[in-house]
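During the reporting period the student researcher (J.K.) took over the structure-prediction task from the postdoctoral fellow and processed the backlog of single-chain submissions. One of the processed entries is reproduced below for the supervisory committee.
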Amino acid sequence: MSNTPPVAAQGYWTARKRREALLFLAFAAPNILLIAIFTYRPLLANLNYSTLDWTLGAEEATRVGFRNYAEFFTSGDAPVVLRTTAVFTLATVGGSMLLGLLVAVALNLKVRGAPVARAAVFAPYVLSGVGVGLVWLFIFDPVYGALAALLRAIGLASPQWINNPDLALLMVIIVYVWKNLGYCAVVYLAGMQAVPKDLMEAAAVDGAGPMRRFWSITLPLLSPSSFFLLITTLLSSLQAFDILRIMVPSGRGVGTLIYEAYLQAFSTYNRAGYSAAISVVLFVFLLLATIVQIRFVERKVHYA
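J.K. obtained the following structure tokens:
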């Protein structure tokens, strides 16, 4: 006769699992509720508004289906807006990541004053975009600006940064990259300091020089940092607004998707339904960019 005590039949919801489920709900439910109210509810409302012919502030609106989308993509403005959005996004993402990587290499050197330099590089990222835009607007001013004074000192005239649409786009790209490269530098610096030192020492013993170690060891091991930065900076650039609005209030030359949505709703047009349709187009681009990166780019990431 066996001495093993009989095992009582137990269901899936044991007392322990019930306590864990209640604890999970206690922490997660408030956040889920806030996200539903302040993120998904406005998203669904915006989808509804995009099917309306609605003037902002009017009490009545007419449902027009997908006519706002058709008008946007068949208008002459769509190619300009999409091209400006693509140029601004690619330039700011690529510029921030490339310069951030170079700055991180410099900050990773063991020299005196490195902690102060790291704080100075990261500081612009936490500053208000409005304040940054106002300061750089003074620098780029073709009459009273600091850059104009430097150019006059060497006998050159200042470019019309604000009145020229191409230069206006270049101007906001420079400012946006300057503001955000510190963020990329700090993320890359953290990745560099996580590279195993014994691996670098072994490569040095085998005769690999600093450049060879950087290209063959450091850079591949930074791929998780690059992947993270690619997603976050891409989403941030597509939603950039404050610097563009402050530096070029007319929107000439800097009309990205989000800026065009703002101008259509709150400028002289007051076309809330048309603006909502442009916002949905931007949301679709953000969603597709995130899916493509997670689906294809993550395969190239080397996790240590």
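The committee noted the following: The first strand starts at residue 52 and ends at 53.
J.K. will present the remaining backlog at the next meeting.
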